[in-house]
Specification:
Blueprint lengths: L1 H18 L2 E7 L8 H15 L2 E7 L5 H4 L10 E4 L8 H12 L3 E5 L10 H7 L14 E5 L2 E5 L12 E7 L13 E7 L12 E8 L10 E10 L2 E6 L10 H4 L1 H16 L21 H4 L1
Parallel strand pairs: 1-2, 1-3, 3-4, 4-11
Antiparallel strand pairs: 5-6, 7-8, 7-9, 9-10, 10-11
Length: 298
């Protein structure tokens, strides 16, 4: 009887440890004039809460001034930091603390305009792999895209960051065995979004999970651009998603179930290196989108 009780205790302890929510810090509160951080962050929190895998704390970035000098969130209390921000700088002590957190194994998730941030912070650009705007050019690193069945490292001169009209486009999975994308359709239609292209950066330790073709007819680059990819930095895992554009009067992209599922799975992978979430029974197809708004996520 004692042996049975001991084994039961061990089983319950293991289950309890596995079921403990992943601690997430969502850093937000300030983006550029083209993005609506309030809308995006509302969806990011709802997506994570809907899954019941995460425990999320939102950390708001001060707008400017003396408050920013004291911006120093304690990254060490969390397993993964999600960045939904741009167009603001951090104090040097905060940058140093963030570098140490990731090098030691902390996870990071980069959403859309967060890859525009910190163009002059070398370590951040190593973490994101690729970025856009912020006066990025050939000195920032090469362009990186898919062509003729392989990835191209393009060192030609030019600015980093471009996108065409906000339209639906097909996501093409390039690694169907990675924990984030395993079990997903090879192709699915993503709802209206900005398809970032001509991103450039160090492109080191980068692994592309999915791409999308940016058509010239919609003002795009005419290239198959990386849209979901991972990067390693020290012991840290980074999931970079260029999707997720929102504005004052639209939130199409973050209502997309494909975005929601890959964001949630990418957050778990960045935190733990694994994905235990089950895939939903419904998912977008190559020709149809599938949407869930905030009310459906709460």
């Amino acid at each position: 009887m004692k042996i049975k009780l001991f084994l039961l205790f061990i089983f319950v302890s293991v289950v309890s440890a596995w079921a403990k929510p992943i601690k997430v810090m969502l850093v937000t509160g300030h983006t550029d004039k083209y993005h609506n951080w309030q809308v995006t962050s509302s969806y990011l929190k709802a997506i994570l809460n809907h899954n019941a895998v995460f425990s999320t704390d939102e950390v708001l970035i001060p707008e400017s001034g003396d408050a920013m000098k004291n911006f120093a969130p304690d990254f060490s209390k969390y397993q993964v930091v999600i960045l939904n921000q741009n167009d603001v700088d951090w104090p040097e002590k905060t940058k140093t603390a963030f570098e140490a957190f990731v090098k030691a194994g902390g996870g990071v998730v980069i959403i859309h305009e967060a890859d525009n941030a910190f163009p002059n912070w070398k370590e951040y650009n190593l973490m994101t792999g690729l970025g856009g705007w912020g006066d990025r050019n050939e000195k920032s690193g090469p362009y990186y895209y898919w062509k003729d069945g392989k990835y191209v490292t393009d060192n030609s001169a030019g600015s980093g960051g471009a996108h065409g009209k906000r339209v639906p486009f097909v996501i093409n999975v390039r690694d169907s065995e990675h924990p984030i994308t395993k079990g997903l359709p090879a192709k699915w239609l993503h709802q209206n979004d900005e398809l970032y292209g001509n991103l450039r950066g160090p492109a080191q330790n980068i692994h592309v999970l999915a791409t999308a073709f940016s058509t010239k007819e919609t003002g795009g680059t005419g290239k198959e651009e990386p849209v979901l990819f991972t990067i390693t930095y020290g012991k840290g895992r980074i999931y970079h998603c260029v999707l997720g554009h929102t504005g004052a009067d639209f939130s199409d992209s973050v209502q997309d179930v494909g975005f929601q599922v890959t964001f949630s799975r990418g957050s778990e992978w960045a935190a733990t290196g694994k994905v235990n979430q089950k895939l939903p029974t419904e998912f977008p197809t190559e020709t149809t989108v599938l949407l869930k708004d905030l009310n459906q996520l709460k």
